[in-house]
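dude i think i finally got it to work??
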Amino acid sequence: MMRRLFLVLFVLMAASAVVMAQQTLSAYTTLEEPLAKELFDQFERETGIRVNFVRLSGGDAVARMEAESANPQASIWVGGVGLDHITAKGKNLTMPYVSREAVNTPVAYRDPQNYWIGLYVGPLVISTNLDRARALGLTPPKSWADLLKPEYRGHVRMANPNVSGTAYNVLTTIRYVNNGNENQAFDYLRRLDANIDQYARSGSAPGQSLAIGEVAVAIGYAHDHVRLKANGANIEINAPAEGAGYELASMSLIRGGTQPVQARQLYDWILSSPSAQKIFTDWYLVLVRNGAATHPLALTLNQIRTVNQDMAWDGDPANRKRLLDRWIAEIESRR
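look at this
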């Protein structure tokens, strides 16, 4: 009798452990940490699945997945510039998934082989802290060319393209502005470097420094800067006159992830849940889902001039490596 009781208890404990394991999910995210927490907390409230997430810049997320490819520590990657997701696909770090909700995302915003799916778009902008600019006697720059003016020396901040998808998008944008001529693009980037005070480790960090007046000018994505302005920062936001590159923030399942069922649940929920869509919209993000609402303060692609961006080319691992190797050799190593 006692032996049977122990056996029953053992089975119940084992079953309980399985259930507990099914109620957690490990994820990487490149969303801003407060946004990620709000989103994943809502997912837990609606599904009972707790998301244990690590916030990483896009480049760091790809590097982490590559280092862990033999033993993945997460099952899904949420957010991050689409170029990074294309690179991850090219490195065989992610896996295809045909979500039943994908039909509501236009074909232009999802991978043809279903390795990644777009969530929202956001153009690059050049923003100025008006208080700091006034104190320094600076006029807000409105173009990529303006950023090269000597008066901005030491007053411009952007992220490091080695670790930031946002900053890598700056590199590819400058290439498009120069009609694909990489020599001309790097001539511009070397001259811009003279005015950069420092390269941050995430694409949103320069904007945060801008908001508190630590720096006069910052390059980043519109939604980050619009949110800072809406929260009281005295900043002016300008889309560069020559054309803005833009991100297609995306989502991918990680190849070999140990929680595929929960990962697919989160994937489907993000694409379909009205509460998830509202959280994104409240953060001024421009969703690509058909019929999605847009915050009235958000800056959409059809309001500005954009470059003719080829995301497949930009995200190709060979092209990315060549551009970043050259940036390291000609700019970073010489600072």
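Residues 2-22 form the longest helix (21 residues).
im so relieved honestly
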